[in-house]
Specification:
With 348 residues, this protein is α/β, with parallel strands linked by helices. The chain has a single domain (2-344), classed as Metal-dependent hydrolases (TIM Barrel). It is 35% helix and 16% strand. Helix 4 (83-91) runs parallel beside helix 5, helix 7 (178-186) runs parallel beside helix 10 and helix 12 (271-281) packs across helix 13 (285-300). The protein is globular and about 55 Å long. The structure holds (4S)-2,6-dioxohexahydropyrimidine-4-carboxylic acid and zinc ion.
Length: 348
C-alpha cells in the first residue's frame, strides 16, 4: 500500500445545485476540498450579491459536522448586471468572481449574455478592481458544429476581448480543445484555465461509441482523442496557468436518461482518485498537488490551504462508486473507464 499526502485541494468550478440535491451532493465535495467556486446557474440564477449571500448561507447550513469548507460565490452575468453592484459585491467580500454564460450555451443559461457590448461596462469595472471573469467559452450559433464551438469562441469572442481589455483577469473554464490549451498557455498571467477530470480521461467515443451514453454527455462536449492529449499535456507540463475545476454537475438520472437529456457529469465523489490514477500512469504523482491545490489559489490570489489530505493506493482495484441517492432520485457517478486503485484515506 502506498500513500500520498498533498495540501488540501480546492475545486475552482463546482455545481452544488440547491435544496435536497445540494444536501446529498455537498458532502462529496466538502469532504476533500477546502474551497470551491460555486456556479450560479440555479433557477432562478444567482444574479445579485444578495442572492449569492443567501445561497452561501444555505450551503453553509447544509455542511456536515466537521467539514471545513468555504464556498466562494460567483455572480451570474446578465445584460442587466451593473458595474456598481459588482463592485459592491466584491468589496463586501461576497463575490469572488463573475460568470459569463453565452445565452443558450448550457444548463440554465437563458439569462446569459447575447451581446458582449452590453456587458463591457461591467467587464471594465472588473478589470479595474481585479475581479476574475469566468467564461463558458462556446459560441451558440446553430450553424457552428458543436465540436467547434469552443475553438470558434476563442476567435470570435475571447481573443478580441483579451486584446480590448488585457487587464481583465479571465478563467477560461473547463477547456476541452487543443486550441484552448494553446491559447491559455500562450497568454499572460491574467489568463488561466480550469480543466475537469473527465476531459482528461475520456474522449467523445465514451459518449457515442457502442451505444449512446448520456452519463458522459456534458458541455462543452468531450472532443476527439488528440484534444484530450493536448489537455493532458498542458496539465503534465506543470504550469500555473491550469488548475482543477471539476465541473461536477449532478443531474438526477431520469433527467439525463431521456430523449433530451441534461448536460453534466457528476464526478465529485471520485475526482481525486481518478486524478491520482491518471497522474500515476504518467509517472507524475509529484505534480498532482500543484494542479489540485497550488495553482488555483495562486490565480485567485488566495493562500493555499494549510492542511493536507492523504490518498491511498490499494493493491486491488477499487469498486465502482454507487449512485448518490437524493430524496428526489439517484445521481450516477462518473465512471472513468479505467481501473482505479486510489481512494481518499478515511481520516481526511
Ligand atoms: O455539462 C455541463 N453541465 N456544462 C455546463 O456548462 C453546465 C453544467 C450544468 O449546470 O449542468
Ligand atoms: Zn460548469
Amino acid at each position: 500500500m502506498q500513500q500520498l499526502t498533498i495540501r488540501r485541494p480546492d475545486d475552482w468550478h463546482l455545481h452544488l445545485r440547491d435544496e435536497v440535491v445540494m444536501q446529498a451532493v455537498l458532502p462529496h465535495s466538502s469532504s476533500w476540498c477546502g474551497r470551491a467556486i460555486i456556479m450560479p446557474n440555479l433557477v432562478p440564477p444567482v444574479t445579485t450579491p444578495e442572492m449569492a449571500d443567501k445561497y452561501r448561507q444555505r450551503i453553509l447550513a447544509a455542511l456536515p459536522e466537521g467539514h471545513n469548507f468555504t464556498p466562494l460565490m460567483v455572480l451570474y452575468l446578465t445584460e442587466a448586471t451593473t458595474p456598481a453592484e459588482v463592485r459592491k459585491g466584491a468589496s463586501d467580500g461576497i463575490v469572488t468572481a463573475v460568470k459569463l454564460y453565452p445565452a443558450g450555451a448550457t444548463t440554465n443559461s437563458d439569462s446569459g449574455v447575447r451581446d458582449i457590448e452590453k456587458v463591457m461596462p461591467v467587464l471594465e469595472e472588473m478589470a479595474e478592481i481585479g475581479l476574475p471573469l469566468l467564461v463558458h467559452g462556446e459560441v451558440t450559433d446553430s450553424d457552428i458544429d458543436i465540436f467547434d464551438r469552443e475553438a470558434v469562441f476563442i476567435e470570435r469572442v475571447l481573443a478580441p476581448l483579451r486584446k480590448r481589455l488585457p487587464e481583465l483577469r479571465i478563467v477560461f473554464e473547463h477547456i476541452t480543445t487543443r486550441q484552448a490549451a494553446e491559447f491559455v498557455l500562450a497568454g499572460d498571467d491574467n489568463l488561466g484555465a480550469t480543466i475537469t477530470p473527465h476531459h482528461l480521461l475520456i474522449n467523445r467515443n465514451a459518449i457515442l461509441a457502442g451505444g449512446i451514453k448520456p452519463h458522459y454527455y456534458c458541455l462543452p462536449v468531450a472532443k476527439r482523442e488528440s484534444h484530450r492529449l493536448a489537455l493532458l499535456e498542458a496539465v503534465l507540463a506543470d504550469t500555473k496557468k491550469v488548475f482543477l475545476g471539476t465541473d461536477s454537475a449532478p443531474h438526477l438520472d431520469p433527467a439525463k436518461l431521456q430523449p433530451c437529456g441534461c448536460a453534466g457529469i457528476f464526478n465529485a465523489p471520485n475526482t481525486l482518485a481518478c486524478l491520482a490514477q491518471l497522474f500515476e500512469a504518467h509517472d507524475a504523482l509529484d505534480r498532482l498537488e500543484n494542479f489540485t491545490s497550488v495553482y488555483g489559489p495562486e490565480f485567485y490570489r488566495l493562500p493555499v490551504n494549510s492542511d493536507t489530505i492523504t490518498l491511498i493506493r490499494h493493491d486491488t482495484a477499487q469498486p465502482a462508486i454507487a449512485p448518490v441517492v437524493t430524496e428526489e432520485g439517484p445521481v450516477t457517478v462518473f465512471d472513468p473507464q479505467i481501473e482505479i486503485f486510489w481512494s481518499i484515506a478515511d481520516n481526511c
